[in-house]
């Protein structure tokens, strides 16, 4: 176990973030929290998450309100980033999925160059090879108060194994406040941090997503909702926003009766072109040419 000189003061802050200590609340009960939720040695589990565990994670639509509903908790987690001076590539991540995986699959983020436009990111299901170089990039706090990787990449990420006190405090906050399936960690190289925003479209036919960087041509329909999905340390920096598009259309692009409907068939599937985020991308357009190059990477 890891204990700190200010452990009780910190635990009090976790238990009563507004600073109000109820008279009826026993100090012994407060101290018992330290036994119930000890600042344990939190580890990073980089193994491949089973599909049944991944599929239990919430859809983006199910946690779209979490940043607002848990604003004070989110501030506390972001404050941990700055107080522990973790590498700049570490951020708080809104935990969500877009599609389920089948047995043996994991979701992998990859980079795909688009000549003349830049680089997009794609998320796709992959059955890992035995000699794969994949490592965890998105983590949630599991029932053992450790960080379980749930999405993966094959690029360089910061090493935070030495930041034991940060990992322990983050896990304790997430566990005490029931945030295990709301907020986790994202690890990325500092080379990826210059990009200020991404717009994410679901590609239902591939059970994947395409993330366009700001400034690149992309489908221009209205998004169902715009959700911030990553937050860095509180250093007066703007959070990254990620617009999410559903995969089916019921008249308009916005799906009025179900915000997330990746199980539905799009009305456009039988027509020429691509259906991306519930929008039809027709041949002959600049966006079609870009998407055509990207899809070859799936």
Descriptive notes:
The structure is a single chain. This protein has 298 residues and is α+β, with helices and mostly antiparallel strands. The protein has two domains: 1-39, no CATH class; 40-188 and 196-295, no CATH class. The chain has helices at residues 7-15, 27-36, 51-54, 66-69, 71-83, 164-176, 286-295; strands at residues 44-45, 90-94, 106-114, 118-126, 135-141, 147-153, 183-187, 197-203, 208-213, 225-231, 240-245, 274-276, 279-281. A hairpin with an 8-residue loop joins strand 10 (225-231) and strand 11. It is globular, with a radius of gyration of 21 Å.
Number of strands: 13
**What is the count of distinct domains?**
2
Shape: globular
Spans with pLDDT under 50 lasting ≥5 residues?
1-12, 23-37, 245-268
Q: Helical residue percent?
A: 10-25%
Strand order of the largest sheet: 2-7-5-6-3-4-9-8-11-10
Radius of gyration: 21 Å
Biggest beta sheet attributes = 10 strands, mixed, barrel
Element pattern in H and E = HHEHHHEEEEEHEEEEEEEH
> pLDDT average, as an integer?
78
SS summary, helix count: 7
| Termini Cα gap | 44 Å
Chain-wise SSE layout:
Elements: H1 7-15, H2 27-36, E1 44-45, H3 51-54, H4 66-69, H5 71-83, E2 90-94, E3 106-114, E4 118-126, E5 135-141, E6 147-153, H6 164-176, E7 183-187, E8 197-203, E9 208-213, E10 225-231, E11 240-245, E12 274-276, E13 279-281, H7 286-295
Parallel strand pairs: 1-6, 3-6, 8-11
Antiparallel strand pairs: 2-7, 2-10, 3-4, 4-9, 5-6, 5-7, 8-9, 10-11, 12-13
Short summary of the structure?
The chain is an alpha+beta fold. It contains seven helices and 13 strands. Strand 10 and strand 11 form a beta hairpin.
């Amino acid at each position: 176990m890891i204990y700190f000189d200010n452990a009780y003061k910190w635990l009090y802050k976790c238990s009563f973030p507004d600073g109000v200590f109820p008279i009826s609340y026993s100090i012994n009960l407060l101290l018992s929290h330290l036994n119930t939720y000890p600042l344990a040695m939190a580890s990073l589990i980089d193994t491949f998450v089973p599909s049944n565990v991944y599929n239990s994670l919430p859809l983006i639509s199910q946690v779209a309100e979490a940043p607002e509903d848990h604003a004070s908790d989110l501030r506390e987690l972001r404050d941990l980033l700055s107080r522990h001076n973790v590498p700049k590539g570490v951020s708080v991540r809104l935990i969500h999925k877009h599609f389920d995986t089948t047995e043996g699959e994991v979701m992998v983020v990859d980079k795909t160059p688009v000549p003349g436009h830049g680089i997009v990111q794609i998320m796709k299901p992959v059955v890992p090879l035995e000699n794969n170089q994949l490592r965890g990039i998105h983590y949630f706090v599991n029932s053992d108060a450790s960080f379980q990787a749930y999405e993966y990449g094959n690029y360089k990420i910061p090493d935070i194994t030495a930041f034991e006190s940060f990992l322990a405090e983050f896990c304790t906050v997430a566990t005490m406040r029931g945030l295990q399936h709301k907020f986790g960690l994202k690890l990325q190289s500092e080379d990826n941090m210059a990009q200020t925003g991404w717009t994410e479209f679901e590609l239902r036919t591939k059970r994947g997503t395409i993330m366009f960087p700001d400034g690149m041509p992309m489908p221009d329909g209205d998004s169902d909702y715009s959700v911030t999905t990553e937050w860095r340390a509180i250093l007066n920096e703007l959070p990254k926003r990620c617009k999410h598009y559903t995969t089916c259309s019921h008249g308009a692009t916005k799906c009025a009766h179900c915000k997330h409907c990746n199980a539905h068939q799009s009305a456009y599937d039988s027509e020429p072109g691509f259906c991306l985020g519930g929008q039809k991308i027709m041949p002959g357009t600049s966006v079609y040419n870009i998407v055509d190059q990207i899809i070859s990477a799936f």
